[in-house]
Amino acid sequence: MDKILLNIALVSYFISTTGYLGSLLIKRIFLAKISTWLLACAFFFHTATLFTQFNLTGQNPVTHIYGSVSFFAWVIAGAYLFFQIRTKTRILGAIVSPLTFLLVLVASQLLHGGGLLPQNLQGSLVTIHVMLSVTGEALFVLVALAGILYLLQDYQIKKRRFGALTRLLPPLKDLDRINHYGLLLGFPILTFGLLAGSTWAGEAWGSHWQWDPKLIWALLFWLCFAFVLHQRLAIGWSGHKAALLSIVFVVILLVSLAVITLSFPTIHTFR
Q: Do residues 107 and 149 make contact, with C-beta atoms less than 8 angstroms apart?
């Protein structure tokens, strides 16, 4: 049953992606509106997949590598749809939908392929730690994706290119709003996630901190998050600066995560 639901979600994400890209190609927003509804359908089936797998296995999704990748994609799609309630950023789905589709496709290849967290890294606090941390990180990625469109739209306006593409892209204020609210939501979620992990480490190992490469990476992610949020709230950064900084930090952090995962031993490893 979970495979059927996953395949339906995957196909829905693919159709949604095709619609969004088609909207960019013909430069018509109506196709993006339809694709947003298709993305919502995909999100619904994706949610059903996660619940079904939990009911069948009794395991939280983040205890194995398939579930962690799938949950990360689910958060990005859900957050994007949530922001649609308050912003006119449907064309942002042209980035969100392909990314989500690719992540779910990768996750589908890992389904039932092992990759469980070691037994000593499982427990309620670990689950809370991973789920909150992944949610915060996914929101930061969404902020960066909105930043890409912000820079593109800002460039079009500064060059006085008021053609079909400029009309298709979201208003700058709505893209900046995603940056603002994404940071406001994501930072405390990530903070509580890291605190849950630290609390568990103190109980399990007698120390709240380990000099593990991924722990150092997580701390750097949090510091970057904190810096951008501080600059917005205390200094008044917004618009171009906030968008550019978010993109740069996310790119650097994702590249560094890939290097750490491939090159260094870490306790945060799926078997």
A: no
Alpha helices in the chain (DSSP H): 2-26, 29-57, 65-83, 93-110, 124-158, 164-168, 172-205, 213-230, 240-263
Structure tokens at 165: 């593409």
Mean pLDDT of successive 10-residue stretches along the chain, which has 271 residues: 80 92 82 89 91 71 74 92 83 90 84 53 73 89 91 84 74 88 90 84 68 77 86 83 87 77 58 47
Tokens 């912003």, residue located: 87
Predicted pLDDT of residue 3: 76
The answer to whether 203 and 188 are in contact (CB under 8 A) is no
User: How confident is the model at residue 270, as a pLDDT?
Assistant: 47
Residue 50: CB partners within 8 Å, gap ≥ 6? 61, 67, 70, 71, 74
- 236 φ/ψ sector (left φ>0, alpha ψ -120 to 50, else beta): left
Q: Could you please report the per-residue DSSP string of 181-212?
A: HHHHHHHHHHHHHHHHHHHHHHHHHS-S----
| Cα 43 to Cα 93: distance, rounded to the nearest angstrom | 13
Distances (CA, A) of 264 to 45, 217, 256: 36, 12, 11
Cα gap 40→67, rounded to integer Å: 20
The CA angle 229-100-46, to the nearest 5 degrees, is 110
Residues 149/95, Cβ–Cβ less than 8 Å: yes
Q: What's the distance, CA 83 to chain centroid?
A: 13
